[in-house]
Amino acid sequence: MKAGAMRGLLVVSMSIFVRRIGRNLMRLPLCLAAVVAVLGAGPVFAQGDYPAKPIRMVVGFPPGGGNDIIARLLGSKLQEAWGQSVVIDNRPGAGSIIATEIVAKAPPDGYTLLVNASGMVINPSMYATLPYDALRDFEPVTMLVSFAFVLVVNPSLPAHSMTELVQYAKSQPGTLNYSSAAAAFQLAVELLKIQTGISLNHVPYKGSVPAITAVLANDTQLTIVDTTAAMPQIRAGKLRALAVALPRRSPSLPEVPTMA
User: Fold this and answer.
1) Residues of the chain with pLDDT > 70: what percent?
2) I need a surface site. Which of 40, 131, 147, 149 has the fewest CB within 10 A?
3) Which string of DSSP letters, residue by residue, matches the chain?
4) Which of 107-116, 176-185, 199-208 has the lowest mean pLDDT?
């Protein structure tokens, strides 16, 4: 494998979950899925008397990241469609475990929704114990979007490609720090380390925005994050994108090569 190459397709899929009520599916998943399917395609009406009060949408990451942006866009559409307030409740920390636990302990009435991504699948494999059971306690409603991963560096780093990054990291072992926003992003960098033989120090953060801010401040020198969160800083020239984790170049970043 050539220097800088990275096998595999890395994306993070974002979905909505609701607290499960026994073994019976709620009307909510059908209603919400219908709204998501026709976003922007015309009027949508709530089923029966749902929702009869404001909806709480819990997001496991800080404002400004991909999960938060999509949740707010969706919340605005649902509010318009249902005629009820949709409150975005950001509860960052512990790779979305805090937010997931909140929803797991909420009343199972369909009025508290969880917007989550890969942590719903990854966390049960990374932690011996969790304050919830992802399969038993939750009902998936719908998948919303999938984000590609992008590796970005501080522009002061003397690396303009993955090959140059690997070469520089090998020449300065143990001196480069990377920030991560969640388990999926951390695992992506750890995979890169294994496949290229470089040494990087991990610094965890509660979300994509603080992870990116750390790179901007040069507290960390690189990170892998979702393209949605990184795009404004890439476009402004404040971050340098080295590669996207896709089989082909991203239409939104056509000038950035793939990691393969």
Assistant:
1) 81
2) 40
3) --TT---S--EEEEEEEEE-BTTBPPHHHHHHHHHHHTTTSS----STT--SS-EEEEESS-TTSHHHHHHHHHHHHHHHHHSS-EEEEE---GGGHHHHHHHHTS-SSS-EEEEE-THHHHHHHH-S--SS-HHHHEEEEEEEEEEEEEEEE-TTSS-SSHHHHHHHHHHSTT--EEEESSHHHHHHHHHHHHHHT---EEEE-SSHHHHHHHHHTTSSSEEEEEHHHHHHHHHTTSSEEEEESSSS-BTTBTTSPB--
4) 107-116
Residue 123's domain spans which residues? Answer: 11-147
Residue 175 has a CB neighbour count (10 Å cut-off) of 12
Per residue in 209-256, pLDDT (tens digit) is 999 999 999 999 999 998 888 999 999 999 999 999 888 898 889 999
- Residues 117 and 101 reside in one and the same domain: yes
**Integer Cα distance of 226 and 216 in angstroms:** 16
Q: Are residues 141 and 158 in the same domain?
A: no
Cβ(81)–Cβ(45) below 8 Å: yes
| Cβ atoms 50, 110 nearer than 8 A | yes
Residue with tokens 């050539």: 2
Which one of 115, 147, 179 terminates a domain? 147
The residue whose two tokens read 């925005």 is 209
